[in-house]
Design a protein that fits this description.
Layout lengths: L14 E4 L5 E8 L5 E8 L2 H15 L15 H15 L4 H19 L9 H14 L1 H20 L26 H12 L15 H12 L3 H5 L6 E2 L6 E4 L2 E3 L7 E3 L9 E4 L2 H13 L20 H14 L7 H16 L1 H8 L4 H7 L10 H5 L8 H5 L1
Organism: Nocardioides furvisabuli
Family: Belongs to the 'phage' integrase family.
Keywords: DNA recombination, DNA-binding
């Protein structure tokens, strides 16, 4: 007859023996989460203390998880981070750029404060004080730190290494008031002029600009697309034969750390995949780009480097910043064009139309972060309030 197996998480008889130095060793066999029986032992000055120490050790071991690494209340936070990063790799559900951002935020913002803490020491009060200190530096810094802390400690909770996720008990971060700023038509024209005239004067050495930056700006203004999405547009994504012409936004450019830049086959979110009807000024620059790549296959990028590889978003941002600094224009980034499009569309067609154009799941996001507030009240109020005008004396007698 088969002998019944010891259930996972239980232990057999405890063997107590006296060591040569007079201390007592308590020893037993414990069945771990992987089903294997392993010897576990502890010592103490007396038989009772040795048995108590062994049972405490077994209680902690009951929280262990196997596979990517063992986690228990006594595991260091640094060890948790290693397991968490491995877990992200195995799940393979987030973009490479997002994974790199999580790791950077964890190592630069959180690890200096908690690397040597054990998981049992990661209390609500400690994390709350830490996040408030980060918020004094900047809201963004505190928000990024809270996100990665929540994700990592959420994994520890799933591994039963902690009884609850302490991040969930911390105070809510308060976003400081901010106002989205759109570019005016005058500012847009000044930017166009600066880019069109950069390094095109006589007597300048080196290759002349190839005109791609000017075209990229017109595409951002005509599509509201993010810079990475614009750089990911392929020949096949542009249709200038229909009326109005269209551009399909269905990818983005990614530059992983230490790896070549490549085109990702989906944009930031599923809602961001969309087909946009474009204005004539955008259609014209895209026609010109299509002429340049007329002999290339449909998968070829509209914007590319001299080696026909994807342009990096950092290089485009750097070039734009250098040109505008030379022209004395500050505070403009590729995202400024996206906010400008959102504001223009809101004024003409409302926030829902702007959200649809930008690929947002909710117009609340668009209003909060992309549309410049309109302080002007609808002038129809003046006509309505005429009913409150003072009456003439003859009107009062009638």
């Amino acid at each position: 007859m088969a002998r019944p197996r010891t259930p996972i998480g239980t232990f057999g008889e405890i063997d107590l023996r006296t060591n040569p130095d007079g201390s007592v060793r308590a020893r037993t066999r414990f069945r771990d989460d992987d089903g294997q029986l392993r010897a576990v032992e502890a010592t103490g000055p007396t038989r009772k203390s040795a048995e108590r120490n062994l049972k405490e050790k077994l209680a902690r071991r009951g929280h262990y998880a196997t596979g990517m690494g063992e986690l228990s209340p006594d595991t260091t936070f640094a060890k948790l981070v290693e397991v968490w990063l491995e877990d992200i790799e195995l799940e393979d559900r987030i973009a490479v750029s997002t994974r790199e951002l999580y790791e950077r935020d964890m190592r630069t913002l959180v690890m200096p404060a908690f690397a040597h803490h054990t998981l049992r020491e990661m209390s609500i009060s400690k994390i709350d004080r830490f996040l408030k200190a980060q918020a004094k530096i900047s809201y963004s810094r505190a928000k990024h730190a809270k996100v990665v802390l929540n994700l990592a400690l959420g994994l520890a909770l799933r591994y039963e290494a902690i009884p609850r996720n302490p991040v969930l008990g911390t105070a809510r971060l308060r976003r400081p008031p901010s106002t989205a700023m759109a570019l005016t038509i005058t500012q847009v024209e000044a930017i166009r002029h600066a880019v069109q005239n950069w390094r095109r004067g006589s007597g300048l050495s080196g290759p002349k600009p190839d005109g791609q930056l000017e075209a990229i700006i017109e595409v951002m203004l005509g599509t509201s697309a993010r810079i990475g999405e614009v750089l990911a547009i392929r020949k096949r994504d542009v249709d200038v034969t229909c009326a109005p012409p269209t551009v399909r936004i269905c990818g983005t450019v990614i530059s992983p750390s230490g790896k070549p830049t490549y085109r990702q086959d989906h944009p930031k979110t599923s809602k961001s995949r969309r087909t946009i009807s474009i204005p004539t000024f955008t259609a014209e620059v895209l026609r010109q780009r299509l002429v340049v790549i007329a002999s290339e296959d449909p998968e070829h990028l509209v914007f590319f480097s001299r080696n026909h590889t994807p342009l990096t978003t950092n290089n485009v941002r750097r070039r734009l910043r250098a040109i505008l600094d030379d022209a004395g224009i500050g505070g403009v980034t590729p995202h400024s064009f996206r906010r400008t499009v959102a504001t223009v569309l809101d004024r003409a067609g409302g926030a829902d139309l702007a959200a649809e154009m930008l690929g947002h799941t909710s117009s609340d996001i668009t209003r909060a972060h992309y549309i410049e507030p309109d302080e002007r009240v609808n002038p129809v109020t003046a006509e309505i309030l005429e009913s409150l005008a003072p009456r003439r004396s003859e009107d009062r007698t009638n």
